[in-house]
Specification:
The protein is an all-alpha fold. The chain has 15 helices and no strands.
Length: about 400
């Protein structure tokens, strides 16, 4: 009778939770970790190298600008590339485009060569960030997608916390060539994981383009909410050092490190929480929390408030990263995950640039305190507009994020 009663139990009660970390998912993690370590290790070092070989401050800025411009443009093209060549081949190309130019950097001293190599590396960055998230979203079980994306966020977040200071430290202690070699090799090592990745992407009955997805309101809303937090992130990394010019450089570096660590941990937590309670429920609260963190920066003269603000903003930013991507994946078929990931990454990159540019214009008129307060108010205002718009559905439509 005991055996019979066990056999009559529902199947889901007799099995464990679906496996999260398959060999293919681990391969994505390995390739993405290597790519992001390479990206962050060189992000601040290449501009320094450019000035060391005679470039002006403008030239140093162009190095980062060329990298990010090619990243944005390549993100637009990545879904078409993977449709034609498949995940495995395109990711292999992406790792090569990141690693080989890094190895060659110290051999070219002219600014033109440095900018050209940065453009090539930007293409590699775009491929890995777009396809890394898309592959994790498609490979993990649907009911654990948030958890999988949270873990992926942790994997690619650690390089942001470790890679930036490590690259600068190595450059100061061992010289630029050592950093370039280390940054190139860590990307190329990721090639070991490529054979374990999926080949072709799932076929779509009707291929979906980026513009078609952007026109969908159910995908546009989470994109806008996420864009608000990335705008704030661009402001923080650009203007916190300038706004606290009278504070020690070590304090500003620690504040930015705390923000990055808080965002990484929060992104990880949001995944498991979203699987249990719904990722959509986290979107508005995450942006509100991020706005509170930005508001704390009005008091730049108070190191305590600034540090609290960095923890709070980082938490809101991390949750918004996970929740927005998880919600967007929920609303499309797996064949469109690469396109959704491209849209999400475009919102990330565009937000960083728009936020920094607009804040600089406002700060020139109001000062840093007024500009931080205005940014927090803007974030809350946009949330209210979206919430009010969603609270009035038409023809019996049920509000959803």
């Amino acid at each position: 009778m005991v055996i019979d009663s066990v056999q009559l139990l529902p199947k889901e009660q007799l099995t464990d939770k679906p496996k999260l970390l398959s060999r293919a998912v681990l391969a994505v993690f390995a390739a993405s970790f290597g790519a992001m370590m390479s990206f962050y290790m060189l992000l601040s070092v290449v501009p320094q190298f450019a000035t060391s070989v005679g470039a002006t401050g403008i030239g140093a800025g162009l190095a980062t600008g060329a990298l990010m411009l090619s990243t944005v443009l390549a993100e637009l093209a990545t879904p078409a590339l993977v449709s034609k060549f498949g995940y495995r081949q395109v990711i292999a190309y992406g790792l090569l485009l990141l690693g080989l130019p890094a190895l060659a950097l110290s051999s070219f001293s002219g600014l033109g060569w440095i900018l050209a190599l940065c453009v090539v590396r930007g293409i590699g960055v775009a491929i890995l960030v777009v396809l890394g998230g898309a592959l994790v979203g498609s490979l993990v079980p649907a009911d654990r997608r948030g958890e999988g994306l949270g873990l992926y966020g942790f994997v690619v977040g650690v390089p942001a916390v470790v890679g930036l200071p490590l690259g600068l430290w190595l450059a100061g202690r061992a010289g630029f060539p050592v950093v370039f070699i280390a940054g190139g090799l860590v990307a190329l090592v990721g090639l070991v994981a490529v054979p374990f990745l999926p080949g072709k992407k799932p076929r779509a009955d009707q291929p979906v383009g980026i513009l078609a997805l952007v026109r969908r309101s159910d995908l546009l809303r989470p994109s806008i909410l996420f864009l608000l937090t990335t705008m704030a992130a661009g402001v923080v990394v650009t203007f916190l050092p300038l706004g606290m010019v009278h504070s020690s450089g070590s304090f500003v570096a620690l504040a930015l490190l705390v923000q990055a660590a808080s965002a990484t941990i929060a992104r990880w937590w949001a995944g498991a929480h979203g699987d249990r309670h719904g990722s959509a429920k986290l979107l508005v609260p995450s942006v509100l929390v991020a706005a509170v963190g930005i508001l704390a920066l009005v008091s730049l003269s108070s190191p305590t408030l600034v540090m609290i603000g960095m923890v709070v903003f980082g938490a809101g930013f991390g949750v918004a990263q996970n929740a927005s991507l998880a919600v967007m994946f929920e609303r499309v078929s797996p064949s469109a995950y690469d396109v959704v990931s491209a849209v999400w990454n475009l919102a990330y990159d565009a937000g960083l640039g728009i936020g920094a540019t607009a804040f600089g214009i406002v700060a020139a008129r109001t000062g840093y305190a007024g500009a931080f307060g205005s940014l927090a108010a803007l974030m809350v205002l946009v949330i209210l507009i979206i919430v009010l718009h969603r609270s009035a559905p038409t023809r019996g439509e049920r509000p959803s994020w």
